[in-house]
């Protein structure tokens, strides 16, 4: 028998997903996007006995996390300025990506009852854009150091 469910209730909206930094409970302020890019390398083991097909072993994995946000200088929020300080310091930061508890009611704390991802990394790229007659915006890239941990609900 086929499994049935309401497709629309199973989807996660983009405005529900946030990048959290430091202890994992502070989202990037005024974020407009959040992306995790995970890449896996392979080790070529092709040889004369492989025939026409390549042969590989799993190699190392790597990842980057990027987010775009509107620029703010408000205190108490994690934003471009606080990440710039972290980049200058060269310090590793903890991160988590997951759903906010209740973004519709301004509760942006990480919902730990839903699956989320976490790890550590370094801020490796920052850019600040200030176009004429636009709200300033910024882009942030964190390069992972170590494994990504997937936490199930």
Q: What descriptors fit this protein?
A:
153 residues; mainly beta; 1 helix; 9 strands
The proportion of residues in beta strands is: over 45%
What's the helical proportion of residues? under 10%
| Mean pLDDT across every amino acid position | 90
Low-confidence stretches: none
Largest sheet: 9 strands, antiparallel
The sequence of SSEs as H and E is: EEEEHEEEEE
Number of strands: 9
Map the helices and strands.
Elements: E1 17-21, E2 26-27, E3 31-44, E4 56-70, H1 80-89, E5 93-102, E6 107-110, E7 116-129, E8 137-144, E9 149-151
Could you characterize what this model shows?
This protein is mainly β and 153 residues long. The chain is built from one helix and nine strands. Strands 1, 2, 3, 4, 5, 6, 7, 8 and 9 form a nine-stranded antiparallel sheet that branches. A hairpin with a 4-residue loop joins strand 1 and strand 2 (26-27).
Brief characterization of the structure:
With 153 residues, the chain is mainly beta.
């Amino acid at each position: 028998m086929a499994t049935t469910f309401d497709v629309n209730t199973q989807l996660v909206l983009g405005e529900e997903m946030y990048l959290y930094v430091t202890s994992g409970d502070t989202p990037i302020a005024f974020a407009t996007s959040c992306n995790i890019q995970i890449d896996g390398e392979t080790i070529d083991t092709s040889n004369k006995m492989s025939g026409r097909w390549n042969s590989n072993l799993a190699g190392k994995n790597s990842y980057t996390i990027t987010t775009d946000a509107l620029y703010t200088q408000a205190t108490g929020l994690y934003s471009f300025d606080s990440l710039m300080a972290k980049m200058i310091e060269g310090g590793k930061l903890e991160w988590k990506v997951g759903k906010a508890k209740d973004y519709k009611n301004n509760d942006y704390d990480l919902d730990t009852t839903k699956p989320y991802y976490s790890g550590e990394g370094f801020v490796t790229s920052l850019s600040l854009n200030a176009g004429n007659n636009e709200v300033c915006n910024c882009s942030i890239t964190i390069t992972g150091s170590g494994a990504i941990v997937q936490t199930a609900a």
